[in-house]
C-alpha cells in the first residue's frame, strides 16, 4: 500500500487529535484502505452487544462494557475506499482544532523487570484455580507502555502495518471518548453476508522459524485450541444451521503462527447479529472456560483494565457485508506513549516464563511497526 499524498496524510493524522470519529481499516489480502467517517456529533454508544441488533456502522466494543468504556458505533456518514476516494471524502474537511490530550501520561513507567514481576504474581493467581480444576482455561493478559518515536504518525504506522501484515485486518480508529487505537488482528469473530457466515477458533501460539512455518504443535496448544473450537461449535449451533468445519491447521500471523479452525454456517436472517456476538464474546481465545465464571475472575483478578483490547472491532452491516474481528495485537495511542496489549491462554500445565515470552512476541507485532 502506498502512503497517500501529504495533505491527506496530515489530515488523517490530525483527525486523531480532534473531536471527530472515524475508522480507517484494511481487510486481509486486500490493498484497499476503507474510511468510515461520522460527519458530526458523538458516536452512538451501547451497553450490551445485543443492542447492536439491526445496527450498521464501524463498531469498537471493549472486553467488558462500562459507562467509562462503552460499545461505540461510528455512524457511516461517509464511507470511502482507496486513497483517491478517501481524498474526495475528506475534501473540504479542515484539520480539526486540536483537543486537550487525554490523560497526561507522566506516571513512572515500570522497568521490564517490574513488569515481569507483576505478571508473575498475577500468573500465580491464575494458575491456582486451574490446578485446582476450578477452571479449564484462563487467558491472562497485560499492558505495556512505550514511548512514541518523535516523528510518530498514526497514518504512517497504519500503512506500515498494512505492508508488514498482509494476512491481518489492520485498523486505525479514533473517537473522542475511546481515543486512538491501531491494531493488526488475525482473528475474525463474525463475518459474512446474506445467509453465509463465518467465524474462527484461533489459539495456540509459536514463533515463526525465520520464514519457515513450524507445524508441530504441543499437546497444550492443541488442547487450548480444542477448547475454543468446542465453545464456538456450541455457540454457533444456537443460531446457525449447516455448520461446516475446516481445521485445525497452522495459520501465520506476522512473526507468529496459531492453530486455526474455520467455521462456516447459515443464518436465516441478519437482524440479530448482536445476539450472536453476545453469545460468542468473549470466546475462550481471550477469556476462559467456563465462560461466565472466568469472565468474572479475569475482571476481578487481572489487575488492570483491558479497555478495547480483546473486544470487537470492525464493520457491521446486516444488509451487506459484515467483517468483525477480535481486537488483538493492538495499541492505544496516548500523548507521547503507546500502550500495547497482549495475552495468552493458560492451562494447568502452563509455565510462567514461556507465557511471558509469548506476550512479548505478540506485543512485537505492534513494536515492530512503531
Ligand atoms: C490473546 C491473544 O491472542 C489469542 C490467544 C492465543 C493463544 O493463547 O495462544 C492465540 C491467538 C489469539 O486467539 C493476544 O494476541 O493478546
From TrEMBL:
Positions of the Chorismate-utilising enzyme C-terminal domain: 116-362
Catalytic EC class: isomerase
A single MF term (Gene Ontology): isochorismate synthase activity
Pfam families according to UniProt: Chorismate_bind (PF00425)
Keyword Isomerase: yes
Domain of life: Bacteria
Gene3D superfamilies cross-referenced by the UniProt entry: Anthranilate synthase
Keywords linked to the UniProt accession: Isomerase
Amino acid composition bias (Low complexity), ranges on this chain: 93-110
EC number(s) stated in the UniProt entry for this protein: 5.4.4.2
Region (Disordered): 93-115
Family: Belongs to the isochorismate synthase family.
Protein name (record): isochorismate synthase
Organism: Bacteroides gallinaceum
Amino acid at each position: 500500500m502506498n502512503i497517500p499524498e501529504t495533505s491527506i496524510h496530515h489530515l488523517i493524522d490530525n483527525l486523531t487529535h480532534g473531536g471527530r470519529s472515524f475508522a480507517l481499516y484494511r481487510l486481509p489480502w486486500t490493498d484497499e484502505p476503507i474510511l468510515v467517517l461520522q460527519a458530526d456529533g458523538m458516536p452512538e454508544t451501547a451497553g450490551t452487544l445485543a443492542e447492536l441488533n439491526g445496527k450498521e456502522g464501524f463498531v469498537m466494543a471493549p472486553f467488558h462494557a462500562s459507562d467509562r468504556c462503552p460499545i461505540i458505533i461510528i455512524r457511516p456518514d461517509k464511507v470511502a475506499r482507496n486513497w483517491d476516494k478517501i481524498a474526495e471524502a475528506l475534501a473540504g474537511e479542515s484539520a480539526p482544532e486540536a483537543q486537550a490530550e487525554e490523560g497526561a501520561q507522566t506516571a513512572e513507567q515500570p522497568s521490564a523487570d517490574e513488569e515481569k514481576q507483576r505478571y508473575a504474581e498475577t500468573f500465580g493467581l491464575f494458575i491456582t484455580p486451574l490446578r485446582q480444576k476450578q477452571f479449564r482455561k484462563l487467558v491472562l493478559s497485560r499492558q505495556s507502555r512505550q514511548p512514541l518515536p518523535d516523528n510518530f504518525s498514526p497514518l504512517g504506522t497504519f500503512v506500515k502495518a498494512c505492508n508488514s501484515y498482509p494476512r491481518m485486518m489492520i485498523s486505525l480508529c479514533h473517537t473522542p471518548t475511546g481515543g486512538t487505537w491501531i491494531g493488526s488482528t488475525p482473528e475474525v469473530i463474525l463475518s459474512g453476508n446474506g445467509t453465509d457466515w463465518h467465524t474462527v477458533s484461533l489459539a495456540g501460539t509459536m514463533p515463526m522459524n525465520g520464514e519457515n512455518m513450524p507445524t508441530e504443535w504441543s499437546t497444550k496448544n492443541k488442547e487450548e485450541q480444542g477448547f475454543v473450537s468446542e465453545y464456538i461449535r456450541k455457540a454457533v449451533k444456537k443460531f446457525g444451521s449447516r455448520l461446516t468445519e475446516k481445521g485445525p491447521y497452522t495459520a501465520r500471523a506476522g512473526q507468529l503462527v496459531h492453530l486455526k479452525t474455520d467455521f462456516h454456517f447459515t443464518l436465516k436472517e441478519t437482524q440479530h447479529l448482536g445476539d450472536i456476538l453476545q453469545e460468542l464474546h468473549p470466546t475462550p481465545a481471550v477469556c476462559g472456560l467456563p465462560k461466565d465464571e472466568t469472565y468474572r475472575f479475569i475482571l476481578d483478578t487481572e489487575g488492570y483494565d483491558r479497555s478495547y483490547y480483546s473486544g470487537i472491532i470492525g464493520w457491521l452491516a446486516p444488509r451487506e457485508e459484515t467483517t468483525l474481528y477480535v481486537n488483538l495485537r493492538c495499541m492505544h495511542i496516548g500523548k507521547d506513549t503507546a500502550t500495547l496489549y497482549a495475552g495468552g491462554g493458560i492451562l494447568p500445565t502452563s509455565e510462567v516464563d514461556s507465557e511471558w515470552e509469548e506476550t512479548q512476541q505478540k506485543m512485537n507485532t505492534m513494536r515492530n511497526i512503531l
